[in-house]
Amino acid sequence: MKSLLRMVAVAAVCMAAAGCCGAKGHSAPEKIRVACIGDSITFGTAMTNRVAECYPAQLQRILGDRYEVRNFGDPGAGVYLHTKRGDRPRAWRLRDEYAPALAFKPDIVVCNLGINDASTYMGEYIHSEDGKAKLERGLFRKLYVDLLESFANDGCRPRFIIWTKLGPTGKKHHFKGMPYAFVMEHDLEQVARDVGAETLDMYTPLVPFAETPHFSSDGIHPEAGAQKVIAEITAAKIQGRPAPVR
Questions:
Q1: Cα(30)–Cα(65) distance, rounded to whole angstroms?
Q2: For 159-168, b where at least 16 C-beta lie within 10 A, e where not — what string?
Q3: Could you tell me if 123 and 137 are in contact, meaning their C-beta atoms sit under 8 angstroms apart?
Q4: In this predicted model, what pLDDT tens digit does every residue of 64-108 receive, in sequence order?
Q5: What is the residue-wise DSSP string for 170-184?
Q6: Which of the four, 46, 100, 163, 234, has the lowest number of CB atoms within 10 Å?
Q7: In a domain, 76, yes or no
Q8: What CATH code is carried by the domain that includes residue 229?
Q9: Quick one: CA torsion of 219, 222, 224, 229, rounded to 10 degrees?
Q10: In Å, how far are 22, 94, 182, 191, 227 from 139, measured between CA atoms?
Q11: CB 195 within 8 A of CB 155
């Protein structure tokens, strides 16, 4: 009897982790599909061994064979549709990784977006001489919600986990000391509420790494050690465990 109860408990944990899209209509359990979407931090830009040590790769090793984790990071991507220069669309939804991510039909979507939008984002709050904001107030939040909701498939929505406190910057990066990311936190939290997402603070645990070799020389991209921290915190969230104490 105890053995049966244990099996039922394990199955319940797996179904909760997978969300409603998990093992629908299948006799054998499928892998829980985890899509890591985001920008260059997710992609692993500036890493010496990106393929093996970016956080999605390390997350796969931590979670094990029960999960399938894929990296859909795209350097330079964000939420807003266009850059100021009017060149390649900035929005992750308009870039190469979007269609493959949808086709993957993830059970869990872990999303890190916002840092590449930070300067533009302030246009929702900074007013011109006529008293009007340069951008429609709430545009960032609307576009982010629309992006996440586009992952709904056949009436089923994946489990969303999003960064609501973005990673820190080192002294060498021009965002150091700027208010952009901190102002954005309010809207990131609201996005999470709008889509029922779980949240991750990736600022606090990474601050001790920002001025060490675990961050690249550009002051914004985590190297293997800091990427490991991201992977461990993300894995704990996915599996419903307390975040590791450092």
A1: 10
A2: bbbbbbbbbb
A3: no
A4: 999 999 999 999 999 998 655 555 568 999 899 999 999 999 999
A5: -TTSTTTT-SHHHHH
A6: 100
A7: yes
A8: 3.40.50.1110
A9: 130
A10: 32, 16, 17, 11, 30
A11: no
